[in-house]
């Protein structure tokens, strides 16, 4: 009799996909509303503030969420040690998140006026700083759930977060007519609430006592340090174009470019879902020396992600103008050419990215950081050279070249270290 029963890994991928699909849908719908209600300028300001928030979130969490995924997966059968890591991660996240929130508040003038030349951004960044301790807590919780492979709860937390941000933001922007400020409050307020409530899920794993700030937190922080550096450089690698458009051009150009980026991020649903699962799964296979399953995981993941990515890219090439006009209106058709250029880079980058987490799973966190740093610096240089000359099209060209370079470098090291497992 034919069975529809799926493996644990495939079920996990499905839940990760549901989580990311909900996030992407909420992200797209919110940007559609903001684009139509606030125009290119308002969407541009919101995009700049949200981009700064994403960087703040990386440092606020300090990579502890990713570190917890690794250590919880490795010590899942040693309950005492596992719970010690979880408890240390929760406490450490609150400390690091609070420090990062204070730092962002103090630097809001420098970022808003000094870099973006827009005083309206200053107050919005100060509001944003309030939620960083709570997003750090949430990242620690979802990192724990990923390590436990409790993907239903993992998806639940992320879905609640993204749907609540979308709903609250729309309420503040349209009925309450609070414009960009309402949109910013719309992601800050739900982040605080969900961050606090998410602690309920892991309360049974928490071990009280001062000892939790000892060796376990040091291990998490050391591992997380490289993770946060690699992730931040990786984020910079994909967001530097928007930041430098805001610096060299203006918020209207940022708004046009944001639409191209939003659409091309539709490619990320499957790759990011696979990326999150291969991290925990590869760490588990590697520590058990189960190289055959690890190799099969990587090969199957890459091939399937590549095929899906090519299909979605073809749809965006053929129907991109129609989609932009339908979702955002005629004013945003300037986004189509940058979209085409970005598709080249992202369609080649995402299949490799989907399995890059195997390097972290093997403990090669310093290598991951060095790769990210090299690729990030290359992308920054390209954007600095091309944006002043070619505007948002130059940003798209620079980003695509940088992504292709990043894919080649990552592919080289994945092949090198997975091949070495077999001697």
TrEMBL record:
Keywords, ordered alphabetically: Cell membrane, Membrane, Transmembrane, Transmembrane helix
CDD domains, per the entry: MATE_Wzx_like
Major localization listed first in the record, in broad terms: membrane
GO cellular component assignments: plasma membrane
Pfam families with a match to the protein in the record: Polysacc_synt
Bilayer disposition of the protein: Multi-pass membrane protein
Spans traversing the lipid bilayer: 45-73, 85-106, 121-141, 153-176, 182-202, 223-248, 254-274, 305-328, 334-355, 367-386, 392-413
Name used for this protein in its record: Polysaccharide biosynthesis protein
Location in or out of the cell: Cell membrane
InterPro entries per UniProt: Poly_Biosynth_Transport, Polysacc_synth
């Amino acid at each position: 009799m034919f069975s529809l029963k799926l493996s644990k890994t495939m079920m996990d991928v499905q839940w990760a996909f549901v989580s990311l699909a909900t996030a992407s849908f909420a992200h797209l719908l919110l940007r559609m509303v903001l684009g139509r209600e606030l125009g290119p300028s308002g969407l541009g300001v919101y995009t700049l503030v949200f981009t700064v928030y994403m960087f703040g979130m990386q440092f606020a969490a300090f990579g502890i969420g990713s570190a917890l995924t690794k250590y919880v997966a490795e010590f899942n059968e040693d309950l005492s040690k596992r719970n010690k890591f979880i408890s240390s991660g929760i406490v450490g996240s609150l400390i690091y998140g609070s420090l990062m929130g204070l730092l962002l508040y103090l630097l809001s003038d420098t970022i808003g006026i000094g870099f973006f030349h827009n005083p309206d951004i200053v107050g919005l960044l100060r509001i944003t700083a309030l939620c960083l301790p709570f997003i750090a807590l949430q990242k620690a919780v979802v990192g724990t759930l990923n390590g436990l492979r409790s993907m239903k709860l993992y998806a639940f937390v992320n879905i609640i977060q993204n749907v609540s941000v979308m709903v609250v933001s729309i309420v503040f922007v349209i009925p309450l007519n609070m414009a960009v400020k309402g949109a910013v409050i719309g992601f800050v307020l739900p982040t605080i609430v969900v961050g606090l409530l998410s602690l309920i899920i892991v309360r049974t794993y928490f071990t009280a006592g001062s000892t939790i700030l000892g060796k376990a937190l040091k291990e998490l922080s050391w591992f997380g340090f490289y993770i946060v550096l690699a992730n931040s450089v990786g984020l910079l690698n994909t967001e530097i174009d928007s930041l430098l458009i805001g610096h060299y051009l203006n918020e209207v150009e940022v708004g046009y470019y944001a639409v191209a980026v939003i659409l091309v991020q539709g490619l990320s649903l499957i790759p990011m879902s696979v990326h999150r699962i291969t991290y925990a799964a590869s760490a588990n296979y590697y520590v058990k020396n189960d190289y055959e399953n690890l190799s099969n995981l990587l090969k199957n993941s890459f091939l399937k992600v590549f095929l899906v990515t090519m299909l979605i890219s073809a749809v965006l090439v053929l129907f991109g103008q129609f989609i932009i006009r339908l979702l955002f209106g005629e004013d945003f058709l300037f986004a189509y050419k940058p979209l085409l250029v970005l598709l080249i880079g992202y369609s080649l980058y995402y299949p490799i990215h989907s399995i890059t987490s195997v390097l972290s799973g093997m403990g090669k966190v310093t290598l991951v950081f060095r790769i990210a740093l090299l690729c990030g610096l290359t992308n920054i240089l390209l954007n600095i050279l091309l944006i002043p000359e070619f505007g948002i099209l130059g940003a798209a060209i620079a980003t695509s070249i940088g992504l292709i370079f990043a894919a080649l470098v990552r592919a080289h090291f994945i092949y090198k270290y997975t091949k070495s497992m077999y001697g």
